[in-house]
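#struct-help
A.M.: can someone run this one for me? Single chain, 425 residues.
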Amino acid sequence: MIKSCLILQRFVKKSKWFNSYSTCYLPDIDINYYCDVKNTSEIKQNIHSRKGVGDITKVLKMYNLLMMTPNSDQAYDSIKENLYKELASLPNRTHPLVKTYEENPYIIHEVNKKKNFGDYKPLEFSEITQQLNLMRVDKLGNTCGNKSYYYFGELAELEEALIKYTISALLKENFKLVSVPDILSSNVLQSCGMMINTDRTQIYSLDPALHGPDLYLSGTAEMSLAGLLKNSLHDKTDLPLKLAAVSRCYRAETSNVVEERGTYRVHQFTKVEMFAVTTSEQSDEMLEYLRRTEESLFSPLGLHMKVLDMPPHELGAPAYRKYDIEAWMPGRNNYGEISSCSNCTDYQSRRLNIKYSDGNIEQYTHTLNGTACAIPRMLIALLETHQDPKGRIDIPLVLQPFINAKQFIGKNSNVPKLKLSKGKK
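D.P.: on it. Structure tokens below:
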């Protein structure tokens, strides 16, 4: 915590840190909203439309029991702890406009036109990388198993170019760059709205017998950045706070959907993440800003995209509103999500105790997050869009300064094609 405080003091003046080692920490969930019977019908509908977990009826029963139990009673603390555990599983509220959407997202607008390939039938990413010897995804049992990959030569260079391009643009927008840990505790993960140790989890857990209890691999830098700000108090004049991080993301999720084949959904990948902390009045505009920032990053790359306002069932537990950006992947003949940004209002800050003050009153901040660049899907969109019938990949002009001024990617001859043989027992 001391180290985190020293790092953050560069970004947040007049910050005040609280003791994070209390023996029994209960998040300050908005009990006035969730336990008011006038809101029960709305909350039930919200849980249903978001296809989430949570039982508001159970919450109300436990709340009534708590109200009837004297706080001097031995059972009081246990009831209260169980109540807040149930409260924590309820989803955030939903933006009023988003409530009107049904199953399909609302298309805000499209960016760029689809590339015309003429008579040439564009190849899929895996076919391109195989022809140019740029990637290996099969027979990885000796290293990292399935749903992983190796990038070779100029494809690996393009990955680094994308990261540098993205960070360069974010620094110009006054984002503060933070290097984050990839191993977190359950408190941080759950406070961000992630489920752990359930059949629906996407989180990898480390073996407690080998590494100690309560350690997990981070699925996105959003969680580490939120954890850095845990138990902090910010001056209102220092908000909004804009942070960015490059990290490896670990996802236990798998998919048998045809559209998500290959490296579209993998167990580990590199991502540049944006994270913002605002006042309650600033968060709606900050979400629009994050969306515009994503569009400004992706548009010069020549990708055809749809910008979507997502319906309730696509929000997840923490989000109040979420925008997705889907890029056209011509080799797959389909759109694929390459980015999203979400306004989580005070859902995470109440659980992590992140507040701001105007000198007189303390209030919970709002937190937001957005994907500035997720490498595997961005590479799929780029290679499929900019493939040339002559057997090379044209590099977008804005990326060329970050890849030694190269204008295209050709066949990789530096790494020989690998021939695998069975090892002797």
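A.M.: thanks! The first helix runs from residue 2 to 8.
D.P.: also worth noting: Confidence is low (pLDDT under 50) at residues 1-24.
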